[in-house]
Amino acid sequence: MTMNYFDHDLTSLHQQLVNKETTATELVQATLDNIKATDDQLNAFITTNPESALEAAKALDKAGQFDNALAGIPLGLKDNMATKGIQTSAASRILKDFKPVYTATAVDKLNAAGAISVGKANMDEFAMGGSTETSYYKTTTNAWDHTKVPGGSSGGSAAAVAGGQVPFALGSDTGGSIRQPAAFNGIVGMKPTYGRVSRWGLFAMASSLDQIGPFTRTVKDNALVLNTISGHDQRDSTSATREVPDFTSKLTGDVKGLRIAVPKEYFGEGIDERVSVTVRAAIAQLEALGATVDEVSLPHTKYGVAAYYIIMSSEASSNLQRYDGVKYGFRADDVKNLEDLYVKTRSEGFGDEVKRRIMLGTFSLSAGAYDAFFKKAAKIRTLIIEDFNKVFEDYDVIVGPTAPTVAYGIGEEIDDPTAMYLADVLTIPVNLAGLPGMSVNAGFVDNLPVGLQIIGKPFDESTVYQTGYAFEQASRLFEKKPDIAKEY
Amino acid sequence: MKEKITREEVAHVAGLAKLSFNDEQLDHFTTQLSDILNIFDTLATVNTENVEPTYSVTENVNILREDVADNWQQKQELLKNAPLEAAGLIKVPAILDEGEN
């Protein structure tokens, strides 16, 4: 029997469990049935783990303890987070059948809270891509239109939530990989401050940029999940030692006196006019609710894509050296010697986008290119951070579009990497500066969702949530359902 | 227009990255990498004199912990993931070519 999550947020599911109107076992079984009923349309999951999920649910039901807000609630995980004994492939051939011997910290925290993962969601291979089309395994579709991409790289997690299969999911965001698919699917996606969530067990793409965060249908749900996964971890020396506040504390609907900055560069060339109009209308709504809105400038925005693709690919080329066919994962056949094993395994195990980025990074770090590329990009990164610091002296949040367009057709952009990279212009600066950024649904263009991006000061996710919640409660856009909702 | 990176340079970088490409792939990657390097060109126009590079935005410096082994007795589980094992060890091909010299 399926479960219609469109009609139940996390708070309502929690109440039902506490009141014994449902059980964890029923919810997990219903979630698995949801996936069975709709994954031929969405292709959101690479792997499901029904046995271990049902076992965890039964144990929880037996104990009968549902004190934690997430206890007994099912979820999906992006397939780049280590799950002990369950295939974790990062959507790559090179990690086919790889079963980690440990679990990522963020997932461990969910497990400890009693939340139950039912499967591993599709993604771009090693989180490299913006459409989930570079996956070795399958092509995920947009929850609103199955001929369109779900965005990426966390496209499976986003489609699973937006398509109603699961009440929430985790993704990861290196240059927009949570916010852009959240925008394309009309849901809430938060990339927390760098260091807010431990990266231990997240398969590294670019270690100075990667961050795990939640996908949910509402802002309050999102804050509840972030409450659970945040905090210092001695296994990730970059995880913040700061205290974790209750991220739901500012969800009042009130934004009177909130100072909102709107960068003029975020409405510049390359931004679809209909996206601009939709986002400007959302900002006007926040103003009507009592916030003050001013135009500002982030002058180095246009250099973000270049700086990002140098830094990200350099870090990625270094991180991906570990995949050599020796200790785990795919190993090529018919090799002459150890060197040949490395080269053949990597050439057959990685897809083209991963190779492109390894090549770019290796080039950027190579003798003769290091100063002009890697070091120069790191200096531009400083200028981008200074742009944000200056604006945050006078403003509480920065808002604009999440992506320049709505979701495009499957197969339309994949052969043009340059165009794909340039489409990340609005999300990338946030990662370079390590700031929290969230996408909430701002409205629709041709029945496809448009994202409103809300960027906060470091470790001030609470004000980002406050802003998103006020808009969401005033617009009630989350009440609009995609056609796939009729399947449940 | 002159390519930003030559076919020979792409082949050299592939060697550094332990990747191999056939002729057709090499042509394709040379064109694509040149296009991407064109985007990178914009950075040269920014004055970065006296600007310090940022390599990480973490606030943390030297996080230390007790030097105690944790979660380490997993040899059998780890070996299960190895493509080839023998006698409790991971097996790899010869470092030098077999059957040569």
UniProtKB/TrEMBL annotation, chain A:
Q: Enumerate the spans annotated as Amidase domain.
A: 26-464
Could you name the active-site residues?
78, 153, 177
Q: Reply yes or no: does the keyword Kinase apply.
A: no
- Record's GO cellular component, any one? glutamyl-tRNA(Gln) amidotransferase complex
Q: Name one GO biological process term.
A: translation
Signal sequence interval, chain numbering: none
List the InterPro entries hit by this protein, alphabetically.
Amidase, Amidase_CS, Amidase_dom, AS_sf, GatA
Which chemical reaction does it catalyze?
L-glutamyl-tRNA(Gln) + L-glutamine + ATP + H2O = L-glutaminyl-tRNA(Gln) + L-glutamate + ADP + phosphate + H(+)
The alphabetized UniProt keywords are: ATP-binding, Ligase, Nucleotide-binding, Protein biosynthesis
The top EC class is ligase
Pfam families noted in UniProt? Amidase
Kindly list the GO molecular function terms attached to this UniProt entry.
ATP binding; glutaminyl-tRNA synthase (glutamine-hydrolyzing) activity
What does the record give as EC number? Answer: 6.3.5.7
- Gene3D superfamilies reported for this sequence: Amidase signature (AS) domain
SUBUNIT field: Heterotrimer of A, B and C subunits.
* Annotated function: Allows the formation of correctly charged Gln-tRNA(Gln) through the transamidation of misacylated Glu-tRNA(Gln) in organisms which lack glutaminyl-tRNA synthetase. The reaction takes place in the presence of glutamine and ATP through an activated gamma-phospho-Glu-tRNA(Gln).
Family listed: Belongs to the amidase family. GatA subfamily.
Q: What is this protein called?
A: Glutamyl-tRNA(Gln) amidotransferase subunit A
Give the lineage: Bacteria, Bacillati, Bacillota, Bacilli, Lactobacillales
Q: Which gene encodes it?
A: gatA
TrEMBL record, chain B:
Give the enzyme's EC designation: 6.3.5.-
What's the stated role of this polypeptide? Allows the formation of correctly charged Asn-tRNA(Asn) or Gln-tRNA(Gln) through the transamidation of misacylated Asp-tRNA(Asn) or Glu-tRNA(Gln) in organisms which lack either or both of asparaginyl-tRNA or glutaminyl-tRNA synthetases. The reaction takes place in the presence of glutamine and ATP through an activated phospho-Asp-tRNA(Asn) or phospho-Glu-tRNA(Gln).
**InterPro entries (UniProt xref):** Asp/Glu-ADT_sf_sub_c (IPR036113), GatC (IPR003837)
Record Gene3D superfamilies:
Glu-tRNAGln amidotransferase C subunit, N-terminal domain
Q: Which UniProt keywords apply?
A: ATP-binding, Ligase, Nucleotide-binding, Protein biosynthesis
Task: List the lineage, top down.
Answer: Bacteria, Bacillati, Bacillota, Bacilli, Lactobacillales
A family per Pfam: GatC
Q: What is this protein called?
A: Aspartyl/glutamyl-tRNA(Asn/Gln) amidotransferase subunit C
This protein's record includes keyword Transmembrane: no
Q: Which chemical reaction does it catalyze?
A: L-glutamyl-tRNA(Gln) + L-glutamine + ATP + H2O = L-glutaminyl-tRNA(Gln) + L-glutamate + ADP + phosphate + H(+); L-aspartyl-tRNA(Asn) + L-glutamine + ATP + H2O = L-asparaginyl-tRNA(Asn) + L-glutamate + ADP + phosphate + 2 H(+)
Q: Name one GO biological process term.
A: regulation of translational fidelity
Could you name the domain of life of the organism this protein comes from? Bacteria
List, alphabetically, the SUPFAM superfamilies matched: Glu-tRNAGln amidotransferase C subunit (SSF141000)
Quaternary state and interactors: Heterotrimer of A, B and C subunits.
Q: Which family does it belong to?
A: Belongs to the GatC family.
Task: Give a GO molecular function annotation for the protein.
Answer: glutaminyl-tRNA synthase (glutamine-hydrolyzing) activity
